[in-house]
Amino acid sequence: TTSFGQGTTGFSQGSNFGQGAGRFSQGSSLNQGSTASSGLSASQLTSSVVTSLQPAIASAVAEALRNTQSRTSTSVSALSAAEEERINAQQSANAQYNYEYKVGDDDKQTYISHKEARDGQNVEGSYNYIDATGSLVTVNYQAGPMG
């Protein structure tokens, strides 16, 4: 067992990191620049603890990855194109939303807005902005099952 920061810091590390042997108990807090009874500042203590724990963390991550890779995978069958189209049409049939936003930044001379509404498979909207010449550009659009 390796101990850091003697006194009231209460940090100790066992060899079985992540399995209950390591523990951290709260005592008095260390502020940046303060010195524990061991003579280490809080940043030195933190650096020492992190350096000491890195091998145990790397080992735990490697073990977790090994366990993940050793599990048997279940196969997932892909949808046929017809099934995917049917599901998308069903989910899209009743979709509804409305949104609008406007952005204006006088410092950067940026002005844009966008408004869109959807009802089932039909979408209508417009957006506009001020181009580099100072002209207002507006685009209106519609989309639906036929384009």
Distance between the termini: 69 Å
Overall, the morphology is flat
Q: Indicate the low-confidence ranges by residue numbers.
A: 1-34
Order of helices and strands: EEEHHEEEE
Q: In terms of structural class, how would the helical and strand content be classed?
A: alpha+beta
Query: What is the residue-mean pLDDT, rounded to a whole number?
Result: 75
Rg (CA only): 30 Å
Helix content: 25-40%
Main beta sheet strand tally, sense and closure: 4 strands, antiparallel
SS elements, strand count: 7
Report on the architecture of this protein:
There is one protein chain. The chain has 147 residues and is of the alpha+beta class. Helices cover 28% and strands 31% of the residues. The protein is built from two helices and seven strands. The strands form two sheets. Strands 4-5-6-7 form a four-stranded antiparallel β-sheet, with no helix packed on it. A hairpin with a 5-residue loop joins strand 6 and strand 7 (136-143). The radius of gyration is 30 Å and the shape is flat.
Layout: helices, strands, pairs:
Blueprint: E1 2-4, E2 11-13, E3 23-24, H1 42-70, H2 81-92, E4 96-105, E5 110-119, E6 122-130, E7 136-143
Summarize this structure as a short list of keywords or feature phrases.
31% strand; three-stranded antiparallel sheet; alpha+beta
Brief sketch in words of this structure:
With 147 residues, this protein is α+β, with helices and mostly antiparallel strands. 28% of the residues lie in helices and 31% in strands.
